Amino acid sequence: MSDANDIPNDQPLSDAAAGFAKEQLQSFIERIERLEEEKKTVAEDIKDVFAEAKGTGFDVNALKEILKLRRQDADQRAEHEAIVDLYMQALGMLS
After folding, report:
1. Is the Cα dihedral 88, 85, 76, 47 positive or negative?
2. By CB count within 10 A, which of 1, 3, 65, 74 is most buried?
3. What is the C-alpha to C-alpha distance for residues 88 and 81, in angstroms, rounded to an integer?
4. Domain parsing of the chain, residue ranges
């Protein structure tokens, strides 16, 4: 892929190249706008699922914590849990 720096500053873009660049830029912008709209829809769907879970008696904060833990690999999770346990012991929160 070429870089804008590959074009000497003293040579203007041809009309065809400028038209292509404009079309390509517009395509990128429109794709990003569509993805942003999809992201908004997905975020609303997730919010609805959390509301449904809460309505059936589940603790939403606990669900969010589980989701966070599931994104971590086993080593990351074990390290985090060890640090939390250490801090809780230091604060006298564990027996």
Report:
1. negative
2. 65
3. 10
4. 13-58, 59-95
